[in-house]
Specification:
Length: 194
């Protein structure tokens, strides 16, 4: 079934102004204007982020909605997909953000706007732990793009976490998926948007 609603979730310290989010927004606006597109700025609190997302997609049809998530957004996307049974595209997804982000407690800036500050609180780590979605119920609903050259996350851990999903293990590459344009056709095809 073609996608009618698409959610894009950015990563930690990122925003809807990220290169990938902007490219995806442009593709959707230019080629699929009838698809409902939502790329929100996620609050620092994982609990608040998930509450906002659940409220935002509450009326979306599970059979024709999908979610794309990058890094921490990939973790959130997995949680959304597991709750709603929808398709998900994951871009170098965070597997254990509670562990990884425990090192980032304190004041942070966003990549796209260094003047924009937020505080990552210690209890956010517990919130992440509470959101851990567990084993994938329907691995075939996932497409995971995983760069072996990711300098932030371990590609092997991602590949194990999403075993059974459609995996695209990319030689080299980086955490930001700087060659995102190359992967757009595969993403659109997986979402039945071609």
């Amino acid at each position: 079934m073609p996608i009618t609603h698409l959610l894009y979730l950015h990563g930690f310290r990122s925003s809807p102004q990220s290169v990938k989010a902007q490219k995806m927004a442009a593709v959707m606006a230019n080629r699929y204007p009838t698809v409902h597109w939502w790329c929100p700025q996620l609050p620092p609190s994982p609990q608040d982020a998930m509450a906002m997302l659940e409220k935002g997609v509450a009326d979306w049809p599970a059979a024709s909605m999908a979610v794309i998530g990058s890094s921490l957004g990939g973790f959130y996307a997995t949680t959304v997909a597991e709750r709603h049974g929808c398709k998900a595209v994951l871009l170098n997804p965070a597997v254990d953000p509670a562990r990884d982000l425990a090192h980032y407690i304190g004041e942070q800036t966003t990549w796209q706007n260094p003047d924009e500050h937020f505080f990552f609180e210690a209890h956010f780590v517990d919130e992440l732990r509470a959101l851990q979605p567990g084993p994938l119920k329907s691995p075939q609903h996932y497409l995971a793009l995983i760069a072996k050259g990711d300098e932030v996350l371990d590609w092997r851990e991602m590949a194990v976490r999403y075993a059974g999903a459609q995996l695209r293990l990319l030689e080299g590459g980086d955490h930001a998926l700087s060659d995102f344009d190359v992967h757009l056709p595969a993403i659109l095809n997986f979402l039945d948007l071609t």
